[in-house]
Each structure stands twice: as structure tokens, then as C-alpha cells.
Amino acid sequence: MRILLIGKKSFIGKNYINFSKFKDIQDVDSKNLIPENIDFSKFDVIIHLAAIVHQSKQFSNDEYLKVNTEFPVRVAQKAKSDGVKQFIFLSTTKVYGDNLPPKGFWDEGSECNPTDAYGLSKLKAEGQLLALSSPNFIVSVIRTPLVYGEGVKANMLSLMNLVNWVPVLPFKGIDAKRSITFIGNLTAYIDRIIEIRAMGVFLAQDKEPVSVEELVLLIAAGLKRKIFLFNPGKLALYLIKTVAPTIYARLFGSSVIDNSATLSKLALNLPYTTKDGIEIMATYYKSLYG
User: Fold this and answer.
1) DSSP string over 224-272
2) Taking a C-beta distance cutoff of 8 angstroms, is the pair 114, 120 a contact?
3) pLDDT at 262
4) CA 18 → CA 14, 64, 173, 257, distances in Å?
5) Could you report the per-residue pLDDT of 6-46, keeping only the tens digit for each?
6) C-beta separation of 85 from 139 below 8 A
7) Positive or negative CA dihedral for 77, 121, 188, 5?
8) 148-170 confidence digits (pLDDT tens)
9) Is 150 exposed, middle or buried (0-12, 13-18, 19+ CB in 10 A)?
10) Hey, how many other C-beta atoms are within 10 angstroms of the C-beta on 142?
11) What is the rounded distance in angstroms from the CA atom of residue 187 to the CA atom of residue 21?
């Protein structure tokens, strides 16, 4: 199986190469890449990872659409004409928006209401890519929540720094649930989708969501840090939610998916628990920062 990653040296790309059961994997830098000038015919599968992510606030809406929507569609169109068998697009649960539905979770069939340029650009790409799908050109879309592992950045790295350096934290009794995905498990999803040439939309997460308190304690255990958790109280949480809703959502809000349909369709048993993934990530973090 000859696989091409679009997104050279990306966090997910580097880890996918390390964890994948497939060995004939190449990666290419998306910067200055002109899809129409590339011969994709020697590859069986293309995995498109390149994107402007939602933390990149310095980019305009047009730039999000250019990079996250137009570019992957151009790659897929050229790949299809060159005879590539499968195109895998890494999307995001941000396509659903920020507000959980009344049932308390999103699933593969949930309505999408993106609230930012990142989620909107990914959703538009999904629709155009799936329209290209055919028996000879399988399009697979994988929506992920936060992905973590060796070399993770953004929110997870910030939380690890917090646990590593601040011994007293306000997360006691915070039972808001989070769906997260260890990169080793994401690799297992991708490999299985390639193996059975699965078409359509899939959700990738660890076996079970974790509460914010559980996540903080797992990180502390992985870092071998002694921490004390206290409950911030309803008043403090109300004030944070009122004054800084973005920070509140990031630290205390729930974001949960149910991917039982994906697991059933793929007949997949995940190789790593969240505890396993956190320990691997924490070991790597300690090797860098002590």
C-alpha cells in the first residue's frame, strides 16, 4: 500500500508514520504545492492533513477557505484523475459548532452548525470531497476532537504546562466530559479505513470521554506531579463564564461525541487506553522540559 501524506512534518503526520502498520509512506510539504503539477498515479491512498487550524486567528475567512476547502478539493480532483484509489480527509468536530444538542453528544449524523471560519471551511471541504466519491475513488472523512500525543501543541500543551508548574488547580468535581483522541488510536482508525476501503464520514476518539478532573489527574500521574485540586464553586464558575466565556468553555465545558456507529462499521478495537496515551505523551514532554 503506497500512501502519500499531504502535510510534511505535521504533528499528526509524523506520529502517523511512527504508529502505522503501513511502511510505504511518503509525506510532502503543502506549502507552494500545485496539485495540478503533481503526478499522484504512483500512490494508492492520499491522506490530507494540511490545514489552517482554529487557533490561527490571524488568518482571514478567505484564507481559511483557500487552504482548508479549495486546496484539498484540488488535490482530490487531480488524485482522482491520476487513478488514486482512496482519499482520506482529516476534518474536525468543530463542524458541529459549539453547542451540544439536547441528547448531550454529537454523532455521525448530527446536524452541523459551525460557528467559526475553521469549522465552516472544513465542512465545505467535506461536502465537495464526498461529491467526488465513486467505487473507484473512495473518499473518507474523519472528524476528530482534540488529538494528543508526542509533540502536541495548543490547548493540550497549555494544560500540561499548567499541571507541570501549578500544584494547586480548580478542577475538583468538574465532571464536564471531553472526547479526545490519542494519535496512536487515530492511526488505528486511519489504517482500518484504508484496509477495508471504508467510504463516508467517521468519528475518531478514545474509547470513552473523560471528565476534566480525570484528564488533569491522568496528566499529573503521567508527569509524576503531586497536585491538589479544589472546587472553584458555582459563583466563581458563573463569573468566569460571564466574563471570559472562551476560557470557561476551554477549561470547564463539555464536548462529547458518540462514535459507536464508526466503531461498528470498522469493527475496530482501539489499541490504546486514554491512560496509555497520556503516559506516552507525558514521557515525551518530560524528555523535553524536565
Assistant:
1) T---EE----HHHHHHHHHH-HHHHHHHH--B-B--HHHHHHHT---S-
2) yes
3) 98
4) 7, 29, 37, 26
5) 998 899 999 999 999 999 999 999 988 999 999 999 999 99
6) no
7) positive
8) 999 998 889 999 999 999 999 99
9) buried
10) 20
11) 9
Reply yes or no on whether the pLDDT at 52 is more than 80: yes
Q: How many CA atoms lie within 13 A of 226 on its CB side?
A: 0
Instruction: Give dist(CA 268, CA 185) in Å, integer.
Output: 10
Tell me the pLDDT tens digit for each residue of 104-142: 999 999 999 999 999 999 999 999 999 999 999 999 999
For residue 17, count CB atoms less than 10 angstroms from its CB and return exposed for 0-12, middle for 13-18, buried for 19 or more: middle
Residue 1: strand, helix, or coil: coil
Question: For residue 202, what are the β-bridge partners?
Answer: 142
Contact criterion met (CB below 8 Å) for 94 and 122: yes
192-249 confidence digits (pLDDT tens): 999 999 999 999 999 999 999 999 999 999 999 999 999 989 888 888 888 888 778 8
Matching residue, cell 502517523: 16
HSE (side-chain half, CA atoms, 13 Å) at 237: 16
Q: Which cell numbers hold the place of 247?
A: 476560557
Does residue 54 contact residue 93 with C-beta atoms inside 8 Å?
no
pLDDT of amino acid 44: 98
Cβ atoms within 10 Å of 269's Cβ, excluding its own: 9
